[in-house]
């Protein structure tokens, strides 16, 4: 699957053959990503990236979620994923990360809009939820730029290496998304 966003920006399905490139991006951004992501210590070799891709592809097949590479100028610069889908309640939760070199160009805002579009129209969901560490202002700004509503603070939501972090919770309904598109 390849989903064009702009001429030099698209989302693409994960493939096992991308493990080396994915590992290189993660490794080059280890310090940058470690501030907010708890999984860096589990990704130490290209084989770890390969296992991540294999496990994610299995999860996608079992759950129907999307997990897509963010490709900018023909290079992997991040990932955007649905962490889960509740079919009975018609919602999904989304998470993402972006290489430091790609930050500040509106890439994640555009990728999130596209993932929301897929969630609402391809999967017929009615609500998208995103949670980011309270202190992660860049990630919170992405949610706000796409028009998501701040719902509150989820206390001690995530263990981040040696401490808990609170999350700011955001959401957007399909109806709100359609109004924002106008």
Could you name the key traits of this structure?
182 residues
Provide the gyration radius in Å: 16 Å
Proportion in β-strands: 35-45%
Helical fraction equals: 25-40%
End-to-end C-alpha gap:
27 Å
Structural class: alpha+beta
Largest sheet: 8 strands, mixed
Please mark out the parts with pLDDT under 50 across 5 or more consecutive residues, or reply none: none
Provide mean pLDDT, rounded.
Answer: 95
What pattern of helices and strands is seen along the backbone? EEHHHEEEHEHEEH
Note the overall shape: globular
How many runs of DSSP E, i.e. beta strands?
8
Helix count?
6
Enumerate the strands of the largest sheet in spatial order, edge to edge or round the barrel.
1-2-3-4-5-6-8-7
Assembly category: single chain
Task: Explain this structure.
The protein is of the alpha+beta class. It has helices at residues 19-28, 30-34, 46-63, 107-122, 137-145, 174-181, and strands spanning 2-6, 9-13, 67-72, 75-86, 91-98, 127-133, 149-160, 163-173. The chain has an eight-stranded mixed β-sheet, with helices on both faces. Helix 1 (19-28) packs across helix 3. The longest helix is centred in the N-terminal third of the chain and has 18 residues, at 46-63. The radius of gyration is 16 Å and the shape is globular. The mean pLDDT is 95.
């Amino acid at each position: 699957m390849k989903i064009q966003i702009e001429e030099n920006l698209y989302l693409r399905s994960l493939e096992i053959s991308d493990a080396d490139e994915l590992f290189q991006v993660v490794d080059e951004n280890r310090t940058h990503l470690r501030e907010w992501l708890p999984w860096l210590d589990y990704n130490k070799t290209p084989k770890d990236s390969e296992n991540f891709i294999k496990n994610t592809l299995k999860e996608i097949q079992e759950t129907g979620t999307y997990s897509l590479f963010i490709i900018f100028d023909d290079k992997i610069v991040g990932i955007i994923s649905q962490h889960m889908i509740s079919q009975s309640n018609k919602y999904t939760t989304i998470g993402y990360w972006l290489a430091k070199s790609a930050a500040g160009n509106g890439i994640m805002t555009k990728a999130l809009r596209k993932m929301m579009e897929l969630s609402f129209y391809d999967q017929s969901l009615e609500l998208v939820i995103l949670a980011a560490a309270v202190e992660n202002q860049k990630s919170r700004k992405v949610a706000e730029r796409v028009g998501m509503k701040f719902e509150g603070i989820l206390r001690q939501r995530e263990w981040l290496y040696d401490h808990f972090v609170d999350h700011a919770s955001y959401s957007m309904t399909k109806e709100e998304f359609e109004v924002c598109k106008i």
